[in-house]
Fold each of these.
Amino acid sequence: MKVPVYKSTLECPERDTLSASALIEAILLVSPRPVTLSVLLSATRLPEPDVRAAIGELRKRYSPQASGVVLREVAGGFQFATNPLCADVLERFREEARPAPLSGAAYEVLTCVLYLGPLTRADINVARGVNSDAVVRNLLDRNLLAEVALAKARAGRPALLDITEDFLLAVGARGRDDFPALETLVDPEEIARLRERINGNTGEHPAEDQSGGVK
Amino acid sequence: MSAELRSRSTLEDFTVELDVYSGPYEGLLALILQDELEIFEVPLRELVTLYRSTYYPVEAPGNIPGTLERDTNFVDSATSLLLLKGRALTPTPEAEGGETDEGFFSPQDLEERLLTYLKIRRGAEALGERFAQNEGFYPSGHALRPRVGNLCVHPDRLAAAVRQILSRMAEPEVRHLGTITVTVGELVTLIQASLTRGPLSFEDLICGMNRLHSAVAFAAALSLASEGRLILSQSEPFGPLTLEPVE
């Protein structure tokens, strides 16, 4: 596909003509946060098909195989980031270590909020069966969770926690819909085994119908 | 570790190297007690193994005399950690309205909770993999300064923050103190009168007073000291407290 060429708003003969991809490239370069399609449309004042075509071109140009900078589609927008293959070199250059990975408890809290949220701290504690306040505090510090509203109907109006843009950036997701359904992550056989263990421990057996057959 | 260090009777020199913490053992305990570190993230078995390998290495078998106190302290703290971990892992959800359900679950409720937790566990594993796959993306370092008036704060969050700043702390429970029959002002007068005779130990000052009077006397002494009307001195932590008049 041939990307159309547009006249620059700058009155400069050398920059008289710029491709749509050049304009978008410039916007993404100066933006540390993902830029949504609507913002790109508004900033460039270009038609949507042209912007999409330009993004396609940039995606090829900034592919992980071809460049040290890659174009990511994350958190509902587009962002330039360094190629993860260069991460070691960058960390050496910046003389800083990669942040320590999160604990298992932190991933569980994030999963609760991602799939069941927004949740209060008490909801998270109930879902996990243990007090998670320290983990939540750590995730708030890392800006992976944020207090987004108050549960006005609840006693004490506790804060509701939700995932943040930084969380979506960290997992490379476009949005909440970019995750598989929670049910699909559990093997049905594992669920059956769990049910069997619970019924075995509590002495209960699957309900029987009138004819004596198992429902 | 040298034989000299192994013969120490305290745990001050015991340092631990765990995935979640690295440093003095006493620091680990403090972090757990302050809820800065989750107890169920601390591998107790590894901790015990570390203690044994530190103080009872295979290459230097045999007990060292005088270390019973240290061993007892370690066993005591490790047992407490075990108890704490056991409590933390036992599901005790709070029912609506803050009432505890005495830990009883119907089989259906238990099944539902465990299934939800199983899904959360599997979801957490998938999320962990996703985090790992997306490591190493560093965004542009070019951060524009926010323009004045371009910041957006949700009114609810602002209201919550203001409420938190302006709200008074909950009044402490004082019913156990009985009727309060003395004021700080009265004790200030008493202290000032006593100090005319020279320096005075706090023990002497509160001699014969009940707990309430002693507490109010301490508050009065602190108040006078903060105003520079007397000098409070203590030779060592938890040592005797002396009140001296200002020259």
Amino acid sequence: MNEPDPLDTLLREWKAPEPSAEMDRRVAEDYRRAFRDDRRRSPGWRGFWSARISVPVPVLLAAMVVIALVVWFRSSASTSTPSSAGRDATGVFTRVNATGFQPLPNGDARIVPVKEILR
Amino acid sequence: MSDMPADEATLLQEARRGNEAAFASLYTLYRTGLFGFAWRMTGSTQTAEDVTQECFLALADGSRFDPQRGRLQAYLFGIARHMVFRHLKVSGREADELSECAAPEDVVEDLLAAERSELVRGAIASLPALQREAIVLFEYEELPLDAIAAITGADVGAVKARLSRARQSLRKRLEPVLFPGNERKLS
């Protein structure tokens, strides 16, 4: 068995004091403050309504143009294309939408020939 | 790849999420070691407490430590080391090994006047800063050579050399305490 080096034994006689409770308190306070500040920087759901995003102007303009074109195409397609519902194989409407129909005030009825409709 | 212990990594992760108990566990783990290192290097309780506080403030801040780059121990002691050397420079003490400090004027007189621990303190304080650092981390914090190398940014061979020179100086300066018989023979 090796005997312990007397130098090591002597060195161990020099003992460090215990750090103060005041230091413990300061460190704990530092941690709380750091974490509180961190939470303030990233507010989570509470900050959802005040969150901001930055979008480059060209991207924003391009997105607006695309949206405008989509809306315009959709609206023009719905007005220019007549509905095929109610038209039979001969091209004659057999069912009509009577929404908003009002009879003529004098009660006169007029027979319209098919040729006139198709012209 | 980090060799950080899994439980320590978990504690750090929790502490960064705001878990104060996890932070307290890490604090308990390193508090005494960091304080002891700083105290033995500077000889000042106030400075040692400031250094320890600064280390944990950096840890609480969380943004600067990357677990992939090394152990938490090396990170914390690295901060402590940086602050200690800054303090030594400000207080006019040299940090390089070339500056050999003067030996105590009369070790025998010190023997009569002071306790052995005070003599050890004086002998260690008289070492050049890098040797003092090596002996404090090795003897008192009981860190392995590779951990000391990671903290100090030196290779293991350099740490061994510093330790060897430090022990040689200490043995010489503390000879009257270590071998009181020799002293008697001389007188």
Amino acid sequence: MEWEIVIGLEIHAQLATQSKIFSGSSTAYGAEPNTQANLVDLAMPGVLPVLNKKAVEFGVKLGLALDAEIGKRSVFARKNYFYPDLPKGYQISQFELPIVGKGHLDIELEDGTVKRIGITRAHLEEDAGKSVHEGFVSQSGIDLNRASTPLLEIVSEPDIRSAKEAVAYVKKLHSLVRYLGICDGNMQEGSFRCDVNVSVHKPNTPFGTRVEIKNLNSFRFIERAINYEVQRQIDLNLEGKKDQIVQETVLFDPDKGETRSMRSKEDANDYRYFPDPDLLPVMVTDAEIEAIRATLPELPDTKKARFISEYGLSTYDAGLLVQSRDEAEYFETVAKSTGDAKLAANWMNGEVAARLNRAELEFEQLPIKADDLVGLLKRIQDNTISNKIAKDVFEAMWNGEGTADSIIEVKGLVQITDTGAIEAIIDEIIAANPKQVAEYRSGKDKMFGFFVGQAMKASKGKANPATLNDLLKQKLAG
Amino acid sequence: MAAITIDEVKKVANLARLAVSDENACEYASSLSNILVLADQLEAIDTQGIIPMANPHDAIQRLREDTVTETNHRDEYQQIAPEVEDGLYLVPQVID
């Protein structure tokens, strides 16, 4: 019998507020150490945390997008543990009464089927500071700029059954928080962090002991770390060393491609939560919830369905285009201005995506504006250039050489549609290749491609392909 | 009623990084147990349907607008720190 993999995820999304969750310090990334840590963040005696309104709003926003119960009365609790980058000795979090309760998120699997993943809860909490261990002898340096930055911890049910499903879930949630504008999703800077709980068991037997993999900061690492950890656990089971799988936290080492033990969870599990007396219960009224609901943008699933019905796109194309809100808006601009949604989708999911991929850039970093891509596609539509030449023009646009029209003009790429000019080229080729002409005329149809190639070469790729084909057929027929 | 043992006192002290001597641990165990005796009186009360109190004040949390109101006072704050370097607070080494 096969092993069943059971995965649950905890995702920490840093909320895109200007100030911290409990103080008026800035949350901007990359500042000089401790220049954004005030008396509240430093945990000086006598200070009081005051909750950021935006953080509550963002929590509710996500809850609504996950079709979840909204905690109309949520309570902050102290999660006690000792670590120097947590100067209070406790993290203010939510325990029994979080801002977001049970909800769900639908993910699409590779075969196109939709799977519903349960969301257990999402709660507001503050981030800790950062410890710097390098460069010090028997000391650590502490930077509290990140301390008290607002986080939303989103906890899934253990509904995920493979590394691929886990990645699909993380990508979907990543896309969702960015649609909502509640998190910038920057995984490199730690704005969107992933902890994965993994266990293996045989179907219809109790769940195995779970191991938590911490702080995975790329989609690729998530998949690799899960696959490694699953194999490790299966191997231990097969070797009869099941008792060596202990409930612990491990770190993934991307260089070695393996997980290693970080700390035993026994101690860490005893967080001695209790309601934080410095904070009162947070109440959210129905009217406030409805006001927030009214600000929700069109979400990826709805947008995807609309792209399919309104623009006649395939599920696959639509799915790719709605991954980011910017990309979806870009597509709509191009589709509307060119009046050809299929052409727009083909270019965006083809040339544009491939070029971004090659440059290892995100869609948001695309150097070509929607209106400029429209300029290029219009020249394909009016037969000024062929699709093939358009790719060269696109590359030039990418390199900042100008608009499609200026590049076409400067490089002399205007397509030859004049039948006389194309006929002249064909006549020359027929005259220069009598052997091939004879072969073609004796029934070797495959030779046709040879003539197309020669003619295209002679026209420097500028001959209109359809016209060339027609004329070539006529001329070769003799 | 559940009495607090000396081991439990030591465990909690360790979690909070408090140095508690054996002598004190014994005393704390009995003091803490007495507090529990007091709290145990609540067991006699029917709490069915009562929402657990999160705060003794009958009020709700006031919210702050999301604006940055603080400026950098690092140099002043770090004057009372035992040791700093390159803007970082230095602490005894912590290893995961």
